[in-house]
Amino acid sequence: MLEINGIKCFDCETIIFSRTRHDFHWCPCGKIAIDGGFDYLKYSYKDMPPIPIKFSLEITKKELYNDWNYNRDLFGLIKKEDQTMKIIEVSLEKQER
Ligand SMILES: [Zn+2]
Questions:
Q1: Strand order in the sheet with 51-57
Q2: What domain range is 24 assigned to?
Q3: Does a structural domain hold residue 94?
Q4: Does 50 score more than 70 pLDDT?
Q5: Angle ∠(79,70,46) on CA atoms, nearest 5
Q6: Residues 73, 77, 80, CA angle at the centre, nearest 5°?
Q7: For residue range 1-20, what is the model confidence (pLDDT) as tens digits?
Q8: 54 in a domain, yes or no?
Q9: Number of domains into which the chain is organized
Q10: How remote is the CA of residue 51 from the centroid of ligand 1, in Å?
């Protein structure tokens, strides 16, 4: 199990997380974006700040890296209807706009 820090969009309710250091991407509605992989967490947003969340996935960092590196894009984004895992809302110390 891999512990992941992600953010949730207030608008489309999608969870996004950065798969590796240079994986920067937006949620489907384009209101929030995440970057930094497992090294640091950096996010951007329009209108409303996202909800920082923590959850676990049955995956390895290498699988996430390859998903990003080969443009498979199976991970990094979890739509509202697919959010079946346990999610914990957290507060983040670092916040960048
Ligand atoms: Zn969104």
A1: 77-78, 15-16, 2-8, 51-57, 87-89
A2: 2-89
A3: no
A4: yes
A5: 40
A6: 140
A7: 999 999 999 999 999 999 99
A8: yes
A9: 1
A10: 11
**Contact between residue 50 and residue 43 where contact means Cβ atoms under 8 Å apart:** yes
Q: Bridge-partner residues for 12, per DSSP?
A: none
Is residue 96 domain-resident?
no
Q: Count of residues for the chain?
A: 97
Q: Is residue 48 part of a domain?
A: yes
Which residue(s) pair with 43 in the sheet? 34
In whole angstroms, give the CA distance from residue 26 to residue 42: 12
With contact defined as beta carbons under 8 Å apart, do 19 and 76 qualify?
Answer: yes
65 CA distance to ligand 1 centroid (A)?
23
d(CA 50, CA 92): 11
Centre of ligand 1 to C-alpha 66, Å, is 24
Closest to 45 in 3D by CA, of 29, 32, 26: 32
